Structure formats: C-alpha cells, structure tokens
Known about the structure:
Layout lengths: L1 H11 L5 H10 L3 H21 L4 H12 L6 H12 L6 H9 L20 E7 L5 E5 L4 E2 L3 E3 L3 E4 L14 E6 L3 E6 L5 E4 L3 E6 L8 E13 L11 E4 L4 E4 L3 E6 L5 E8 L2 E5 L2 E5 L3 E6 L5 E5 L2 H4 L6 E8 H12 L2 E4 L8 E7 L4 H11 L6 E4 L2 E4 L1
Parallel strand pairs: 1-7, 5-7, 10-11, 20-23
Antiparallel strand pairs: 1-2, 1-6, 3-4, 4-5, 6-9, 7-8, 8-10, 9-10, 10-13, 11-12, 12-15, 13-14, 14-17, 15-16, 17-18, 19-21, 22-23
Amino acid sequence: MAELEKLIVKFLNKEANLSELEKLEDLLKNDECGQVFNSFVKTQYLSKLSMTEFNLDNAKKSIKARLKKSKRIKRINIYKRIAVAASVLLMLSMAFYLLYNTDGADGPVGEERPHLIVAGTDKAILTLENGDEVALEKGKKFQTGKVSSNGEELVYAEKGQTDVVEKEQSYNYLTIPRGGQFFVQLSDGTEVWLNSETKLKYPVTFKDGSTRKVELLYGEAYFKVSPSTSHKGAAFHVLTKTQEIDVLGTEFNIRAYNNDQIMATTLVEGKIRIKNGEDSETLVPNQQATINYESDKIDIEEIDVSQEISWVNGLFSFNEKPLEEIMTVLSRWYDTEVVFGNAKQKKFVFTGILERTEAVEDILMFIEATSEGQLQFEINDKTIIIK
C-alpha cells in the first residue's frame, strides 16, 4: 500500500509522470486500491475546502467550460480515466477543480442556452376512489378527509385519525409520469418512494387483521413496510404482473418496468419471500431476485444494494453498465427520447456516480469525456442522438 499511497499523493499534487499515472491506473482496477484512492480524494477536498473560500457553482461552470474543449493532452486523459476507474464521478467536479483549476473559478464559461430537457422533479397524478384525478406537484397543496399532500409527498391518515368510515375497501392509484418521482405514506405507516414512469394501486385504508395488499402495476418502487406486529399480525404483500412478494421484513426495492425484459427485487433489510407461479424463493439482505419474463425462473445473486437504490438518495449509480441500459434510465428521468446512430454504441460500458439534479447536458458530457472519442452526444429538441 505504501507505493500506492505515494502514487496517489503525486497524482493529487499533479507531480506524477505518465509512467506513474499508468501504473496508478492499473492499481485502481483493484477494489481495495480504489477505496484507498477515494479516501485520499475526499480528504484532499475537505481539507482544502476548510482552508479556502470555495464557490462550488463557479467551479462547476469552470469545469464544464474546460470539458467542452475537444482537444486533451495525454496527461489529462489519464487523470480522467483514473477518476472513472475509482468510481469517484460523484465528486468529479470538485476533484477536477482542485487538480486543474489554474485560471480561477470566476472566469467566463460562455453563454447559457435554454434547456428543453430538464431534470425530473416531484410530480404525480392521484386517482381517487370516485375516478377523479388530481395533479400533485411542487407548490400545490391538496387535502381531503383521508389524505393530504404538500406537493412533494402524499400522506394518508391512519385508521382512527379520521371520522370518515368506509363501508367497503376503496382504492387509490398514484401514477408517476416520465420525468417525475413521488413519496407516499400509506394509512398503515408504510413508506413508498416511486420512481419515474411508475403506477401503484393501494387501499385508502387497510382492513384490521387482513393481509395488507398493494399492487405495483409497473415501474419502480422502494418500500419501507410498517411491521405486522403493529397491525395485529397482518402480513404485507406486494403484487406485480408476474409475482407476489410476502414481506417478512421491512425495506426492499422492486423494478418492474413494462419494457424491461427482467424484473428485479432487491432486499435491503429484513426478509421477503417471492412467489412466481409454483416457484418460491426467500431473500436475505444484499440479495437480488430477478425474473426473466420469457423463462419465469427466479434467479438470486448477492449484490451491492446501494447501487440499486441510489435513485432514492437522488443519485445515478452505474457500475460497468452498458450505455443502452444507462440511456433507458436517463430517458425516463429526463423525459426524452434516445437514438443510437450505431448499434455497437449500446454496448459501451460506463462506471460512475452522478447526481439526478444535474442537467442532462452535463451528464452526457461526463460520459462522453470518458469514452476517448468513441461517443458523441447531440441534443435535438427533446431527443438525444448518439453518434
């Protein structure tokens, strides 16, 4: 590790020669070395931040302007690949600022263009039991006797907190459009985060002692389930079009988009049992069950759950993901279409962690900068064209 640390220090101080940079790049293919590198970069950033006045917005603008330049010297290209290899794209703008900013962060960055493609935000369509539809979005409040929304979340009253008595169980639907996300707290206290292009069906009030059932009609949702011990032992089940999940624990993620070939269920905490026809499997934390719609077989593997649920924390996390899969995720969040000029581009692999609040132009710029000329993005109205 001593040699690695020396190389990292030289890298951070911009003293490493090309041979040393290439050696560092090879070392960072090892996960343990990557963690050491990340730790050094974070320490470097925090120490400089505490000693200097740092304007993050201006720094980001300066970096964006530099990334727009088509020519790169070999030394900078290697630095860039090292940052990607170590999966520190979440901090890329800060790291690049510390390493390359010699002109000052307050320099001109060129004209700002109007953005036709914007990042997603909190919005949803609530369908009430009588069929009425309510648009939920920031700045708009909504309330009835059983449910209220501040425009960013939807909260149902717990049983006994309202004077309204239901003669029979009624259902609401929450539909999240492309370019949207929303949070809902059900009447039993269960919390659900809904991703773009998702639809959830659920009871307005759960019946005492009966199994609590909700249905993910399509899309992606993260559940933090209120335990059965708080509801007279009532189990919690999640239905999708091909499987039923019996919740024995609390936190899990389901990805079941209509146009995906695979449905994935990832357990973060507790225990869940998945039923698909006659097949049944039980998951423990850090396991993911996938079902291919063509075979209906349940496959289980150990995964890094933080990658799968990064969207709940406002991040895109791509670990050696093909560009086709990445662009599907981005198109849902930014509500845009994607055109590949060459089928081979779909297989380009990218690793990085990026913020979902970033402009799509900046996301594409980061991916393009790591492709070493293999990719070029162009935006035409609300369509992303990959050349």
